[in-house]
Design brief:
Blueprint lengths: L4 E5 L4 E5 L6 E4 L2 H23 L13
């Protein structure tokens, strides 16, 4: 799965966040490190969402890009 992320150069390196996942962000000293770190953040975010919703009635829908 692919996620669009935004990067911002900072005094400490790079901040990176996922537009479609509120509160999902990370950072790194280099752009490559920040992009690698956001992968872990996305996985942790999705695991947390799954855990918080495991007893809830849910449905899946498929969306395709136009």
């Amino acid at each position: 799965m692919r996620y669009k992320v935004n990067l911002k150069k900072t005094d400490e390196g790079y901040s990176v966040w996922v537009l479609g996942l509120p509160g999902c962000w990370s950072q790194g000293k280099t752009e490559a490190e920040a992009l690698e770190n956001i992968k872990d953040a996305i996985e942790a975010y999705l695991e947390t969402v799954e855990e918080l919703t495991k007893d809830k009635e849910s449905r899946y829908v498929e969306v395709t890009n136009a």
